[in-house]
Every structure is written in structure tokens, then in C-alpha cells.
């Protein structure tokens, strides 16, 4: 196994910061490897367009080797049968290692994804620490049950246990590369599974650094394998591989549907965390200042590249102009810039492709006749910036209202009564999240009941926690991540029934 290295020649200087690259090869078993055919993928800094690293473009052959190593590690049972408390200690040590390397990870995430270092330090890295710390405790709390069977009148002892599902393939996107990888890896490890994870080809670096830290923390070789590569190659090969027992996917609804079709061939277990078009509902009695800022952050944070971004804003008509103005004022104050600038609020979008996609939606919004309140164009500079953009009074069937844009674009519509806004908010194929702003407690909870969403926030948005199951209804996904449900999705139930006496 190659030791993690931080040789001077792997330092990359820019704007007064030096980013230390992790081992830019794939982790297969305990070995850091190039792709079988030697191809690689360039990694670009979205703030400058500069290429600063490259990683292997993993092939089906590489996936096969990784799955075999993960299978061998699973069958050797060194991980799945390790004393639960010892497994927990290693998972907790990973949390500590992430904490100790927080600055470095945040900077790496900023170069890889574009986001502000201080946001990565405040959100992404703590999310990764918290999930490992939380899941460390689950290793010793995955209980079974005794079944009170009636049977045929004879005496039986029947119990059910939760067993690790086996070898899991995990595929993650580029918007929260470290946190999404951490959510998946920590949950599967707690259940006793072994893993082949494929990070996004756009942002592979923090997953590789996380794998280095996991090995340093004492995770046995082969338990965690990282195959870098493209979705249609390495990702597809992982989903097709007969040695994978479950696929856990976070990404677009389009790819999620393809994965379901492929996984159906051998009925692999599948959980999916997919896209969203989440609504913000602001009632006239809300604290309008807080609600306006809250709605602005709910869409523009991470430059709108958030699955749970509240990209549709519904405001009670009597306060519509005031709230839209408040959201626009907040948006104008969010400073666009590269992620290493401490004043940056909104970094660039992750790639030129994503910038082009978002600008195209903005053009469609203009063409649809929606009223442009603010923004509407690319930001200045060489990076892939897009101004925070708000459209008011769009038609209900405009693409900017119906489709996930995954960028800093908000559509604002007035409403007259609560039943109407619930109907409109639910009129989408997605169902990931929603938020409600009101001082009326009953209305808040009654509205929460009626919204079709996996998570509803009241007078806040985006408060995720390892203890709170997260996922979507409708086309936003299958299953839940984190919390107890998140661990149990990595297990299968086995029932054992013994005849005790005739
Ligand atoms: P994407 O679907 O294009 O890619 C996600 C991952 O899937 C990447 O690693 C990619 O390489 C891989 N992939 C692509 N094609 C594949 C295939 N045919 N087989 C297997 N793997 C394949 O999504 P993205 O553009 O990286 O991320 C943005 C999307 O992710 C948005 O739709 C967003 O809403 C969603 N997302 C959802 C959540 C959630 O928790 N619900 C969280 C973050 C992002």
C-alpha cells in the first residue's frame, strides 16, 4: 500500500493558498492504482478554469477488481464481525481525523468544487465529522427482535436479526463531494458493509483524501474502495456488477431512473437521493425580514447547487412585493467570488457545462415572459459565475418553474389562501423538501402535514442533522439517508425460528 504523501511537488500554489493534493489514484484494496487502460480525467478549479490535478478514469475492469477486493473483505468478516464497539472506535477515529484535517479538506473542496473555503469549513467538513461520529454509536445499537409467533401451538423461539447487506456500490454527485461521500460511507460502515464508492468525475479529490484518512484511522484494507471515473463508464459498471448487493445513489433523477432499470436485472437493492424543486411558503404573518433572508439563503447558498434548494417561492399576496424586494436585496449583497476570498458568499458554478445549462434556463425564463427582478447573467471574471437571479410571476408551466435548474435561480409567485398554495407547492414531480414561514403554529404544522416532501422546515431551511432521516418522495428518491433508517437501509432482516418442544 502506498502511504499518503504530501511531497513538495504535489503542492499547488494559487492566490496565496497552497492546496495539498491527496493521492490522485484509485484505492483498490489497500493499493493506490491507475486505471487499467491508463486514461485519466483532469480536475479543474471552477474559479479560474485552471487544471490542477488529474485522477484515473476507472474502467469496468477497475470496478471489477474493486468489487472483488470489497467482496473478499466482506467475506473475511474482519469488518462485519469485528466487535461492534471496536468497529465504532475506528469510525469515531475517522471523525477525529477529518476534524484534525478540516482546513486542508475545506481548501481542497474549494479548489475542486468552487465553494467558499469558509462555507466548506462551516458546513461540509462538520457534516462529515458529525456523520462519522453519529454512526460510530450505531455499530452497537443495531438490534433485532423476538417474534411472538402463534405458530401451530407448539413451542418455538423466533427472532429476527439485521445483517449487513454485503458489498455496496455508492455513487455521489459534485455539489457536496465530501459530505455526500461521508454520509454514505459512515452509514454503510456502521452496518458492517464493505464499499466501492465512485465520486463525481468533476470533484473526486476529497473522497480520495477521506479514504486516506480512513486507512490511517485503522479501517482494514478492502473495506473501503474508491474508483474514480465517469458515470457512464465506472458508474454504469458498478451498477451492472453482479458482485454488488446494493446501490446507494445520490444524483439527478434522470440517472437515478437509469440505475433502477439496470439494477432491476438482478434485483439489487437500491436507495436514491435525487433532485428537487422545493418550495418556500411565506405567509403574511411571518417575521418577514427573517423569512426574506431565509428564502434567499434557501435558494442561493452554494450558488443554488443544492438538492434541497428552495427554488420556488410562494408569498401571500399582501406582502408579495415587500418579500420579493427583501429577497432581491439580500441576493444583491451576496458577493460573488472565488472560494479562497473570505468575503465570498457565492462561488462559481462547478463547471462551464453547468454555467451554460443555468444561463440557458435563464434565457428560457425571459422568453416565457416572467419578470426578471434581479440577476439574469453570468458574473464577471474567468470563473463559472452566475448572478443570483429572481423571476417574478412566471407562468405555472414555464421550464423555470417545473424543472430542477441546480443553480442560483428563483421563481416567485403570489398566493391568496393556504389550500391554494399547498396545491401549487405540491404540483411538481419532485418532493425533496419544503419550508414554511409563519407565526401561526397550527397553520405551520397543518401545512407541513399536507406538503408532499421528505423534509419540511418551519421558520428555517436546510437544517440537516445525522439523527434526522433525509430523502425524498415522488421523483426525489427512494429510502432515507442518515438517522436510524439510514443505517437500516444497509441491512437485510433474517428471521430464525427454532422448534423448542412438540
Ligand atoms: P448526476 O446524476 O449527473 O451524477 C451523479 C453521479 O452519478 C456522478 O458520480 C456521476 O458520475 C454518476 N453517473 C452518471 N451517469 C451514471 C450512470 N449511467 N450510471 C451510474 N452512475 C452515473 O448528478 P450531478 O450533476 O453530479 O449532481 C446534481 C444532481 O444531484 C441534482 O439533480 C441534485 O438534485 C442531485 N442531488 C441530490 C441530493 C439528495 O440528497 N437528494 C444531494 C445532492 C445532489
From TrEMBL:
Q: Which PROSITE patterns match?
A: ALDEHYDE_DEHYDR_CYS, ALDEHYDE_DEHYDR_GLU
- The reply to whether Manganese figures as a keyword in the UniProt entry is no
User: Ranges for the Aldehyde dehydrogenase domain?
Assistant: 32-496
Which key words tag this protein in UniProt? Oxidoreductase
Q: Which residues form the active site?
A: 273
Q: Which family does it belong to?
A: Belongs to the aldehyde dehydrogenase family.
Protein name per the record: Aldehyde dehydrogenase family protein
